[in-house]
Amino acid sequence: MHELSLVHSLLELIDEQAAEHGFSRVNLVKLSCGRISGVEPQALKFAFSNTIPGTLCAGARLELDILPLKIHCFDCDREIYSNNADPTTCPDCGGSRVMVCSGFEELQLVELDVD
Ligand SMILES: [Zn+2]
């Protein structure tokens, strides 16, 4: 399961930060990822809550910001934010001459609230 390995890398990163900054408890973990990054939010939250007992993050809340999908349509000749997870078709004109500008960002640690 992809999300489980993401959570493991995340916890390793947080461990490194804890060693560097000297905190021992995490209250909130804020993450972001692109709309079409392939991260499944529910699966990520599930993996997180199953992995954190006994770690620095035990009891911590997880927030995940989904960054919108932005495409450039060469038929409309403009940039469009799409809530549709399909990056291959323009939501306005239905054209397929589109280029994805953003939305495929990998999972990132945005903020940690720690004690
Ligand atoms: Zn279009």
Question: How would you portray this structure in words?
Answer:
The protein is an alpha+beta fold and 115 residues long. It is built from two helices and six strands. The chain has a three-stranded mixed beta sheet with strand order 2-1-6, covered by helices on one side. A hairpin with a 4-residue loop joins strand 3 and strand 4. The protein is elongated. The mean pLDDT is 93. It binds zinc ion (ZN). Zinc ion is lined by residues 73, 75-76, 90, 92-93, 95. Residues 73, 75-76, 90, 92-93, 95 line the site of zinc ion.
Short description:
By secondary structure, the chain is an alpha+beta fold.
How many structural units, i.e. domains? 1
Walk across the major sheet and give the strand order: 2-1-6
**Alpha-carbon distance between the two ends:** 31 Å
Q: Which structural class matches the secondary elements?
A: alpha+beta
Rg on CA atoms, Å: 17 Å
Q: Give the low-pLDDT segments.
A: none
| Strand segment count | 6
CA-based shape: elongated
Largest β sheet strand count, sense and barrel closure: 3 strands, mixed
Looking at the overall shape, the CATH architecture is 2-Layer Sandwich
Mean pLDDT: 93
List of distinct ligands in this structure: zinc ion
* CATH fold node name: hypothetical protein PF0899 fold
Count of discrete alpha- or pi-helical segments spanning 4 or more residues: 2
Fraction of helical residues: 25-40%
Strand content: 25-35%
> What is the CATH class?
Alpha Beta
Query: What series of H and E elements makes up the topology?
Result: HEHEEEEE
